[in-house]
């Protein structure tokens, strides 16, 4: 497995905040301000609404609907500029499909990080159908910081980071972000790998698995990282999402970092899939979750 090197030091120079003006989106604002000010980022605050003129509305009402939409857009534009006063902010308010509008904005503004707030997930329907937030971090190529409903907006400091990995292809790149952020914020760094419970008849000993997994975790941290943090390495058995959440709660972490890759088939339909693990962590974590896909 490729080790993280000092030259892969991510910086968030261009941040995109996708908002629907819901309480869940507002929940993410303190974390956006923290990162944007620290990195002196350019911020794009983006809102995508359904088209005003559509087959569901009567043509006779279109002029009135368009005028009302313009007034609402102006009000929201001013609200976002006021919210992020002191940060170099561009406001985008567009109509159309959130996914296509977001992908276009990411490319045009050279986005390094997308930040979203989410209400979390409950119930079978949401698990099968997903949500806008889930679709974003499942498909967007750049890192995504998802602020879930249990994150504390009054505490946007980053003092303890938990990085969890299954050693898939995106692990080195995701680890680079975790290590970099630990350096940027002088935070403690915990590295975790979760092994599924052994199947009956498996001959590999737990001590061997734990030892080899720990060595792989250590390879993800460059030697020079010792200058700013002393990582701790954990190898646990059980359900990955549950073990990640348990350790995050035990250590009261301020940020969880995960590698993520798009799944095949129905999003979230099988809980053992890596993206479904990320869904569960995002929905229940008491802190924001950074998901990083391999390029």
Question: Can you describe this structure?
Answer:
- The chain is of the alpha/beta class and 295 residues long.
- The protein has one domain (14-292): Rossmann fold (3-Layer(aba) Sandwich).
- The chain contains 10 helices and 10 strands.
- It has a 10-stranded mixed beta sheet with strand order 3-2-1-4-5-10-9-6-7-8, with helices on both faces.
- The longest helix has 22 residues, at 62-83.
- It is elongated, with a radius of gyration of 20 Å.
- The protein starts with 13 loop residues before the first strand and ends with a strand.
- CATH architecture annotation: 3-Layer(aba) Sandwich
The class by helix and strand makeup works out as alpha/beta
Helix content: 25-40%
Q: In the CATH hierarchy, what is the class?
A: Alpha Beta
Give the CA-CA distance, first to last residue.
Answer: 16 Å
Q: Major sheet: size, sense and barrel closure?
A: 10 strands, mixed
Order of H and E elements: EHHEHEHEHHEEHEHEHEHE
Q: What name does CATH use for the topology?
A: Rossmann fold
Unreliable runs, pLDDT <50, ≥5 residues?
A: 1-7, 122-130, 265-273
Strand order of the largest sheet: 3-2-1-4-5-10-9-6-7-8
Extended strand count: 10
> How many helices?
10
Bulk shape: elongated
Mean pLDDT: 83
């Amino acid at each position: 497995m490729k080790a993280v090197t000092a030259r892969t030091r991510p910086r968030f120079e261009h941040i995109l905040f996708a908002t629907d003006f819901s309480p869940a989106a507002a929940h993410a604002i303190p974390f956006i301000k923290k990162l944007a000010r620290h990195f002196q980022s350019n911020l794009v605050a983006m809102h995508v609404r359904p088209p005003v003129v559509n087959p569901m509305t009567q043509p006779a009402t279109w002029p009135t609907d368009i005028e009302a939409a313009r007034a609402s857009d102006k009000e929201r534009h001013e609200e976002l500029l006021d919210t992020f006063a002191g940060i170099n902010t561009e406001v985008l308010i567009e109509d159309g499909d959130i996914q296509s509008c977001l992908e276009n904005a990411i490319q045009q503004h050279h986005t390094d990080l997308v930040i979203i707030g989410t209400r979390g997930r409950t119930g079978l329907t949401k698990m099968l159908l997903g949500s806008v937030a889930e679709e974003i971090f499942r498909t967007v190529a750049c890192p995504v910081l998802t602020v879930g409903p249990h994150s504390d907006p009054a505490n946007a400091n980053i003092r303890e980071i938990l990085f969890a990995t299954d050693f898939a292809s995106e692990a080195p790149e995701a680890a680079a972000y975790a290590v970099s952020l630990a350096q940027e914020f002088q935070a403690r760094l915990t590295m975790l790998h979760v092994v599924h419970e052994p199947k009956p008849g498996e001959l590999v000993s737990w001590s061997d698995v734990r030892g080899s997994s720990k060595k792989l975790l250590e390879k993800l941290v460059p030697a020079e990282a010792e200058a700013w943090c002393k990582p701790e390495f954990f190898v646990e058995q059980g359900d990955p999402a549950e073990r990640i959440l348990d350790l995050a709660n035990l250590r009261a972490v301020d940020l969880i970092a995960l590698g993520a890759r798009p799944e095949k088939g129905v999003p979230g339909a099988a809980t053992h899939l890596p993206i479904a693990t990320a869904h569960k962590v995002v929905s229940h974590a008491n802190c924001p979750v950074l998901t990083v896909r391999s390029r």
